[in-house]
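Anyone? Bumping this.
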Amino acid sequence: MDSLTEYFQSYLTALETYNVVGALWVNIQLTFWSALCSLVLGTVLALMRISPVPSFRWAGTAYVNIFRNTPLTIIMVFCILVAIFQLQLNLSSDFNFNFFLWAIVGLSVYHAAFVCESIRSGVNTVPLGQAEAARAIGLSFLPAARLVILPQAFRGAVAPLGNTLIALTKNTTVATVASVPEAAGLMKTMIEFRPDVIMAIFATFALGFVIIVIPIGLVTTWLSNKLAVAR
Amino acid sequence: MASSSAAAGSSPRSNQPLVLLKDVNKHFGPLHVLQNINLEVTKGEVVVVIGPSGSGKSTLCRAINRLETIDDGEILIDGKKLPAEGKELANLRADVGMVFQSFNLFAHKSIVENVTLGPLKVKKMKNGAAKELAMSLLKRVGVANQADKLPAQLSGGQQQRVAIARALAMKPKVMLFDEPTSALDPEMINEVLDTMVQLAKEGMTMIVVTHEMGFARKAADRVIFMADGQIVEQATPEEFFTNPKSDRAKDFLGKILNH
């Protein structure tokens, strides 16, 4: 019993030394901004993939196939080594914030490919007749997409978009290779300096992500039912 | 016809056909669905297209506002050639109203929003004016009291009447009906047909693909009988139903009229 109390005591000192909540907050910020950017980029890509212009369709398909099939770590390392160090492309003059922004870029371009495919699966839930009716009243492609197709497609895409968001949340840990001080990086440091409570450290971070991710799953499931288009 | 009766009409070219199809051909793979179709529809005329399924009548109807592309030939609406794509085609489609077999009301928009969408976004009409127009059209087709509901809350017959109102809101020169009553329960067919008969009486140019022979007798100026991708016969409804000339038409009428 004593050893258990002792273990717990040393775990508490580890928590006092390192700011776990602060690190997880960085992951939440990365998730938020990357989700926003990849949603915009993914929507543009989905529009390209369903557009009547063959070259747009081709470009959209090429993007999805390249970025969906490249490991996120490689994209992230590319952002740091090539974009920042080789090409000196700085998004901010603040050294750390620059890395943070490039991490968002890396996460966004990668997840945009998945967002695009989620939206496209939503487009497939919209009957062809909706597009035909939109065209028949004189709407051209973009207005028809904006006013008729996408509003219904997004409602049909809530569940797959939720899956992508959950994957994105957990993938923000890859930002550690871009030296962003987030949870996975902190965990590595803690394990290095406090191997005495290694199990508890693992459990802490696992639990941290579960707490962040479970509400996303619940909300998207609830939303996908609530927003479903009655036909 | 050559004399300048133009001054009387609203259009300066009222003596030319409103819809003109010249040698139109279309294939679906090996299937030749439209074979050298030639058709003229003048302003105010109501043309009913009938024929067995697979005869190409729906394809013909959809080709007129280019929901189906054609392989060769020409389609002219009010003297203007149907453009290939883009803004011009959209403008031309706004002049051609279309009513579908499956209604195709915008499922996420209310009834009144379904009708105002075209006037607002294509004709850039003001909000108040579009709403007023929509309500008057919904009243005309008898569903004004359902204006704030969603399409899924209406019966099929009501939805189809809304679809007619939506097409009319664009003030089209011609209305296309692609089997407008085929997806309806029997008790709802008449409410839609009554709306169409009323529209025909008001002088709307209409091309109607249908299996409703009663409507053809009552409202059509001309019946076109299609089979195997060809226009086999065209005549007034009176003549066509009492004295069909081709064997295909006799066979078809024999199957559907002798219950």
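Late reply, but here is one note on the structure posted above: The CA atoms of residues 5 and 218 of chain A lie 36 Å apart.
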